[in-house]
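Example record for the data management plan.
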Amino acid sequence: MMIEQEVSKEVFTMMKLHQSFSDGLYEEMNSLYSDEFQGWLYMPWSDELEHYNDKDIREGNRLAAEYYKGKDIQFIFTGLKIVPQSDDQVAVSYEVIHLNKESVALVRGLTLEVWRKEEDGKWRIIRWYEEKGMQT
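Corresponding structural encoding:
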């Protein structure tokens, strides 16, 4: 199987798991982050660049699942690009739209992730960067 096909399966799993926040689920999503994870998130309404390590992102997902449980939310992912960097690492980019139908809030963002095949043979995110757009 080509590396792009292997990784796209994992990326689509991650995308699907975002919808699980409304069911209060996050554990499977958390298993897709490396213990070496480093991430950065920019949100224009706070004008701050937030840094996350593996513990931070997992706790953030737990809190998101707690917050969104029972709510009508939707994540729409478009423009997936996968660029191999080596036999065991790829860069992935896409646009994500988060729609909270209860508050009629819509947020678009651009995401860049680096996925690496780890020693156990599983693909996990080691780096992540997301720039949010204006909240509408």
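Summary line stored alongside the record: The longest strand covers residues 73-86.
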